[in-house]
Design brief:
Radius of gyration: 15 Å
Shape: elongated
Structural class: mainly alpha
Strand content: under 5%
Largest sheet: none
Number of helices: 2
Number of strands: 0
Distance between the termini: 32 Å
């Protein structure tokens, strides 16, 4: 049961990470200026 629980938790964490990455990419794409896009990229790099 422990392996199943570990695998399930890992899959959930992976999905959350991918969801966060997609959100950052959408924010970069929708940034109104180049400066804003650079600021968003810097913030995401610090995570």
């Amino acid at each position: 049961m422990s392996r199943f629980r570990t695998a399930f938790a890992r899959a959930r964490a992976d999905r959350a990470h991918l969801r966060a990455e997609r959100a950052v990419q959408q924010a970069l794409t929708g940034a109104p200026t180049v400066e804003t896009a650079h600021e968003l990229a810097a913030i995401s790099a610090r995570r």
